[in-house]
Structure formats: C-alpha cells, structure tokens
Amino acid sequence: MTKRIKALVGLAIFLVAGCGLAVLLYYWGTMSFARRFPTPSPIMLSKPEDTAEPQVTVSSFGKKVIPFQSVVLVSALIRQNGSLVEGWTGSGTFVTSAGLILTNAHVVLSDKTYPIEALTISPTFRADEKPVPAYYAKVIQADEALDLAVLKITHDINGQPIDPAAFKFPAVSLGNSDALSLGDTLTILGYPGIGGETITLTTGEVAGFSSESPYGNRAFIKTSATIAGGNSGGLASNDAGELVGIPTQLGSGTEAGIVDCRTLADTNRDGVINEYDTCVPTGGFINSLRPIKLALPLIEAAKRGEEKIVTNMPQQQNPIPEMGGDLYFNDFSNPASGWTAQVDEDGSVGIASGMYVIQVNTPKMVLSGTSGYKAADIVVDFSARVLQSTGGGDYGLICRYQPDGSYYALEVSEDGYASIWKNNSGRINTLVDWEYFDGLAGTSEKRLTAACVGNQLGLGLNGNLLISTMDSDFATGDTGLIAGTWERGGLIVGFDNFKIRGAK
Fold this sequence. Notes:
By secondary structure, this protein is mainly β. The protein has two domains: about 55-310, Thrombin, subunit H, CATH 2.40.10.120; about 325-500, Jelly Rolls (Sandwich). It is built from four helices and 32 strands. The protein has helices at about 1-35, 40-45, 105-110, 290-305; strands spanning about 55-60, 65, 70-80, 85-95, 100-105, 120-125, 135-145, 150-155, 185-190, 200-210, 215-230, 235, 245, 260, 280-285, 285-290, 310, 325-330, 340-345, 345-350, 355-360, 365-375, 380-390, 395-400, 405-415, 415-425, 425-435, 445-455, 455-460, 465-470, 475-485, 490-500. The strands form six sheets. Strands 18, 19, 20, 21, 23, 28, 29, 30 and 32 form a nine-stranded antiparallel beta sheet that branches. The chain has a six-stranded antiparallel β-barrel with strand order 3-4-5-8-7-6. Strands 9-10-11-16-13-12 form a six-stranded antiparallel beta barrel. It is elongated.
C-alpha cells in the first residue's frame, strides 16, 4: 500500500512538474514571440499570416542576407479631374524601427505641374505578393540636389495617427559605403514599375565611382547592374545585408533610358492632354547609386525630429552672355510707344500707370504683347511685379516672335519656378521643364534677364543665369512680354524698364 501511495505521489509530482515546465515553455515562447513579432497595425490585421514583424531572409547558401522586407513601395497621389489618383511610384527602405524611410527626393517632392497631395507606403510582406497601401507618410528631410529624402510614417491607411513607440518596423542595418571596392557584389531591391508588381532583386558589381562637387569622389557608385527606374529610392546592399547605396534616377546619366512616360495633365495649356504635354517618367533604367554616407546627415536629423526640405537645385554658374550697347529702352511712360494694346474676354494687354500690364482673366490662358522691335541676338533686362496674384501664375519674356504666332518664352512663376518653352505654329513644346529656385517665389518686384543669342536661350535673376537651353527653330523676330494662368484666372503683372542690349 505504501509503495502504491509513493508511486502515485511520484507520478503526481512528475505530472505537476511536467505541466509546470510546459506552461513555463509556453509562456517563454509567447513572450519571445511577442518580442519578435509585436502587435501589427490595423491594416496588417487583415492578413493574419503576415502579422509577424518582417525578418531578413538568408539565401540558400547561408552567406548573403537579402533584407527584402525592409523595402517599401512609395506612391505619390495627385489630383486629376477632381479625383485623387496615383501619379507615380518609387521605392524606399525602412532605416529605423520607428518608421523612418529613406528614398529619393524626386519620388516624394511636388513640382509645379504635379503637386503631391499624399504619400502612401506599401510594406513588403512576401516576395511573391503585390504590396498594398498600409500607411501615410510625410517628408521630413529632403535635399533635391542630392536627390535624397527621409519620410516618417504618420497615419495608417484608415487615417488613424501612428504611435511609433507601438510599432517595430523592419529596419535595415546601415553599412559603410566608403568600404566598397571595385568588383564588390551588390544586391539591389525595389519595385521596378515595369515588368511586374512584386519586389524585384537585381545583382551587380561595383563598376566605379563618379565625382560631383561638393560631394567628393564618391558622389555616385557606378554599378554593372541595369536597374529598372521604379527601383529609384530603393535599397542596394552588400553581402551582409547592409544598406550601402540608394538607386538614384536623377543624375545617374540615364536620361535617354526612359521607356514609359505617363501624361496626366494639360501642362502646355492647349486644352488637350496628349504627347505634347510634360509627362511623368514611370519606367527607365538606372546604373548609379547614391552612397549611404551622403544620406546619414538627413537620417540623423530626422531621428532628432528636425524638418528641413531643400528644394532648390544647384544654379548654373554660367554668366549671362555679355552684349554690346543698348539698342532699345522703354519705361512705358508713353502709351503710344508701339506696344500691343488689346482687350477681350480673356483679359488685356497694354501700357497703364507707367507700366506694361498684362491681365489674364481666364484659367489656363496665356496672353502676350510685342514691342515691334525685331532682332536676332539680344539680351533683355526688365522688371516684373505681380499686381494681383493667383498663387501660381507665370510671366516673362518672348523673343523671335513670328508672323504665324510662333515664339520662344522664358518665364518665371509666382511659386518660384522657371521654364523655357516655345510655341511652334500653335504647338507648345517644353524646352526646360519648370525648375524651382530660391528668390523667385512671391509677388515682389524682380529684375529678370533673358537672352536669345544664336541657338542659346537663357533666363536669369539679378544677373545670375538660372536655366538655359539650345534651339534653332526661330532665328529672328519680334520681342515682347507674356503672362499666363493655370487653375485660377485673375493674374495681373506689371512690367517696367524694358531694355534690349545687342551684340558687340
């Protein structure tokens, strides 16, 4: 009896101990799972199998780390015909577990033609699935000259604010781009935009380095890989899975590699959206990377919560062409000095109150007036001031005006952009797309200089050249002034002290 009792007691102790151990193991496993796989956002809850925090994946050889779940699809939403639509996409990479994303500036910054209203982030759960939008993000650091930007996730896709402390995003480790040597293997990850909707891996080698002032001898890392344009802003890693470079479309020397360009707006104001409008490049090829070293100051500033967006591109250093003596001057004190005077339902042009005034009443309308002074090679200095603002109107000089209405236009805008375009028998062609420059924005008076010398066309502010291009369609013609509107009519611009200088 005693032996039986002892046996039963021993069995009970064994069972209790076993159950206790099982409970302990379960508890430990649960806590460990919770530490490794925190509670996902609401959008993740719709996919229970993917609620785990993404982990890096190791290749079958156990040597190369492929951090594909650190890469995201970045979508820029713009307004088209009153609706919010996806204008273009790029790639990005989680660089902190708190939700900071490194990408290219051109992917996430608005321009004059296509202002961005929202940025959505689609995380990568599986390599064989198309990602879906899960978050909204905002730009907190950007340098347009570097073409680098850092985003911060702010809301889930339902518009609920995100608490970064409650999430642990799959951040990639940052490597040392200065340690790269010729022949080192690179793994490029991103969403190509062409040839598929899932994440794509491209391999290549370090093929060289490119210098650029003021960034030094490693301003770009050249690679033997041919990278689809949608990967712009994505991830280039070394064998350890560390981020060492960012595929960068702008400045990579592949402008001729654009294979698809989406036309989304009437950018030339001719009333038709067609191939003559400025389009959004959505498919091209890249062979250069920005080294992660150049992005570190932006990432560190973003970690500190600092917000800074530097949107002006480096201004050209070429001077305005030197010309000879003055050929023509008008301070518009004489209303009968030969300039166009006209009034209709779209607006008016003419001399008033000691200025040449162009008033544009109609949206997406351009009005101009000419001086009657015909010339070939000229540099024109003039003052311009916005008398009534629309927020985005443009104004400037026209040169080589033809009898059929063709001309070159060199313009700036109220919101700080500059452009050169031509009207060729009613067909509008952009020669230099709208570029932003500090000092152009606002309604204050500006002293502008426009040059039409040979096949060279240039536009400057306060004697400094901003943009230039070449075109030889029109050799000579009349000279005048122009102003135009976009979404809002009601622009009024006053011009003064119009001086034409000739060749020496």
